[in-house]
UniProtKB/TrEMBL annotation:
Organism: Paenibacillus rhizovicinus
Principal cellular location given in the protein's record: membrane
Pathway stated in the Swiss-Prot or TrEMBL entry: Cell wall biogenesis; lipoteichoic acid biosynthesis
Keywords: Cell membrane, Manganese, Membrane, Metal-binding, Transmembrane, Transmembrane helix
Residues that hold Mn(2+) according to the record: E290, T332, D504, H505
Listed GO MF terms: metal ion binding
Membrane topology classification: Multi-pass membrane protein
Similarity-based family: Belongs to the LTA synthase family.
SUPFAM superfamilies referenced in this protein's UniProt entry, alphabetically: Alkaline phosphatase-like
GO cellular component: plasma membrane
Name used for this protein in its record: LTA synthase family protein
Length: 664
């Protein structure tokens, strides 16, 4: 038997410590490869439809990892290895936390979520159900990396292996230059890999994403999960640290005075209107109808009513035919904010995604203070429009999202409205009364195509067009409303509830020809605006009182003040803009303000110029649509509209709802 010589023995003993030296030469590449695997695994496990990881996504992922880790090249080799291991552990924990949060909320963790621990804490009761054995792949590399980090810190022999690779003092300057040059190259490469695909997306299919995003996952689709968190940090810093204190005492005082004046108006109506408090203690059921415009109500096509159930319901309800949506980029979420918090949307983005952690006076909070239970129902992913967080902010007791429903009528984006309404009524029937139930429909969502089996309206020449599909969709929703009314009656809730619905926004069909063909007349500019902004608003009172069609001007911001007025709950000290609509005598001079600074008071319609020049603005006579040569009839109202928008923006952006209260 041949015995190894001493040098061979030493090489064998040292062999386990040669690995760190080899790893040091590839440490950054190994870090990127391991994290790229985990990001691909995350993408596969969340599996959002139409968002599977592609070449551009992988470029962004590699670029993001380079931007996160380029600075480690400044460090000595041992320090770099330890830093990369720490980054691996931290980023893995972040990505896996996102995975667990997504499994529960169908959304990603954001800074506002972390600021409101209840969102994350909600995972506690269900954490076991969120775990899966294949999740262990996220942590498989830790079996090697964590011991390696420990050896790097505590093992003298391993430190010696590092020491032999450290440059001599006389070469430190050259080494520093080399490290800085290499890190700069990695930084530039990382920026390029991120910028190129993101810019391409932002200028094509994802235009406007970073100003009007409606879902955190839409950002993730472009930036990746790590890039999303970077943008989320930037977004939060921009809105809450960099510009969060840019409000002056004078601005606050002006806004407070504005809201105090509006509160006094509502207080006077509470004191003088006999309908104030007439329906005290009644349940409230409010439905937000997706893309439901008022031009279809009462119309026929081929002799068939488009909305037969709504038409029938109007005979025993209060219906407003000059009611308008007041949404902006936030669309559905803007309508939700307007109806439930009586505040204007922001000019860019959605309040739901930008300022969900701020405080608001809301219908849910006001009713809960009066002894109500308040719940919201929507059979879609709870993270869409950041609803999980925003509904907690608005004070709802419970949010029944898609996971609360049996998808027994798959239709369009999710559950068909017929089943959605039926299952929601079943939940309401078991709840403590009085309650406030806010429901958000979905079946009439763009692009409106419904399967043939549920189509029951002959749209004639519109067949095969988006406009024809839209008519089919609203006809289906109308049938769902009819069935819901029957179910509420059978459940004994109809005569004990104020039943209401409104449309959230227009249908986004840009071509005016089908509108004119359907209505049978040419539309002037003023009529087009009223069709575009007009949505139905119906209020059924338990005793069928006040039934009829009313022509007073109103908007979504008036929904909450109307409900509180009928229930006898004063809103005079709440930071809200709207005024009640259902009254014995309508409020004189009532004005509905739109996000662009336009307004209507039922006498004139003012449209500001897109270029901002007052001389290019237009003032129409309301009803006949005549363009007035003299715009002075609109100027004072335009100034008041701007004051309303400024006051609302100040409250929303700077979290000043409480400061607007009397004595606040």
């Amino acid at each position: 038997m041949t015995l190894p010589n001493l040098s061979t023995k030493r090489r064998r003993l040292r062999a386990p410590f040669y690995f760190p030296g080899a790893l040091l030469r590839l440490d950054l590449l190994v870090f990127v490869a391991l994290m790229l695997f985990k990001l691909a695994l995350f993408d596969r496990l969340v599996h959002v439809p139409y968002m599977d990881m592609n070449r551009d996504d992988r470029m962004v992922a590699v670029g993001t990892l380079a931007l996160i880790s380029f600075w480690t090249l400044w460090l000595p080799k041992r320090g770099r290895l330890l830093a990369l291991i720490v980054l691996n552990v931290g980023l893995t924990a972040l990505v896996y936390s996102d995975l667990l949060y997504f499994r529960y909320f169908q959304d990603l963790i954001t800074i506002p979520v972390l600021m409101q621990a209840g969102q994350v804490g909600a995972l506690g009761d269900s954490i076991d159900a969120l775990l899966a054995w294949h999740d262990l792949w996220f942590f498989a590399d830790w079996l090697l990396l964590l011991p390696l980090a420990g050896f790097a810190v505590f093992s003298k022999r391993l430190r010696g292996a590092f020491a032999r690779s450290v440059p001599y003092a006389r070469r430190r300057r050259q080494t520093a230059i080399r490290r800085l040059s290499l890190s700069a190259a990695v930084l530039v490469l990382g920026f390029t890999l991120v910028y190129a695909p993101v810019h391409r997306a932002q200028t094509t299919w994802a235009a406007g994403l970073f100003t009007g995003n409606w879902w955190n996952l839409s950002l993730y689709n472009v930036t990746g999960v790590l890039g999303f968190h970077g943008y989320d940090l930037y977004r939060y810093a921009e809105e809450h640290w960099l510009h969060g204190n840019a409000v002056t005492p004078e601005q606050t005082a002006d806004a407070k005075q504005w809201f105090a004046d509006r509160g006094r108006t509502r207080a006077e109506l509470d004191e003088t209107d006999p309908l104030f408090g007439k329906y005290k203690g009644k349940n409230v059921i409010l439905i937000q109808l997706e893309a439901f415009q008022s031009f279809v109500v009462g119309q026929k096509i081929g002799g068939q009513e488009v909305t037969p159930n709504i038409n029938k319901l109007m005979a025993t309800s209060v219906y407003f035919d000059n009611f308008y949506h007041q949404t902006a980029q936030g669309r559905t979420s803007d309508a939700d904010l307007a109806a439930n918090a009586s505040l204007q949307p922001m000019p860019t983005g959605s309040v739901f995604t930008r300022f969900a952690q701020h405080d608001y006076d809301s219908m849910a909070k006001a009713l809960k203070a009066g002894g109500y239970k308040a719940n919201v129902f929507h059979a879609y992913d709870g993270g869409f429009w950041n609803r999980n967080l925003m509904y907690d902010t608005l004070g709802y007791d419970h949010f029944y999202s898609k996971t609360a429903y049996k998808i027994d009528e798959p239709l369009g984006w999710s559950l068909g409205d017929k089943s959605f309404f039926k299952q929601s009524v079943a939940i309401m029937q078991s709840q403590q009364q009085p309650f406030y139930s806010f429901l958000i429909s979905l079946s009439s969502h763009h692009p409106y195509a419904l399967p043939a089996k549920v189509q029951s309206l002959d749209v004639g020449t519109f067949k095969g067009t988006m406009f024809g599909d839209y008519l089919e969709a609203v006809h289906y929703v109308d049938a769902a409303i009819g069935e819901m009314v029957d179910e509420l009656k059978a459940a004994g809730l109809w005569d004990r509830s104020i039943f209401m619905f409104y449309g959230d926004h227009d249908n986004s069909i840009a071509d005016w020809q089908p509108f004119e063909d359907f209505l049978g007349r040419k539309l002037n500019d003023e009529e087009r605006f009223r069709v575009l902004k007009g949505v139905p608003f119906l209020v059924h009172l338990p005793d069928d009182a006040r039934a009829g069609t009313y022509h007073e001007t109103g908007g979504q911001l008036d929904v909450t003040p109307t409900v509180l007025h009928l229930l006898g709950i004063s809103s005079s000290d709440l930071t809200m803009i709207g005024t009640p609509l259902v009254m014995e005598k309508p409020l004189a001079g009532k004005r509905v303000v739109f996000r662009n600074g336009g307004y209507t008071d039922g006498t004139v319609l003012y449209q500001p110029a897109e270029d901002g020049l007052e001389e290019h603005s237009k003032c129409y006579s309301f009803g006949d649509g005549k363009l007035l040569a003299d715009t002075t009839a609109c100027q004072s109202g335009a100034a008041e509209a701007r004051k309303e928008l400024e006051a609302s923006d100040l409250v929303v952006e700077h979290d000043l709802a409480a400061a607007m209260h009397a004595g606040g």
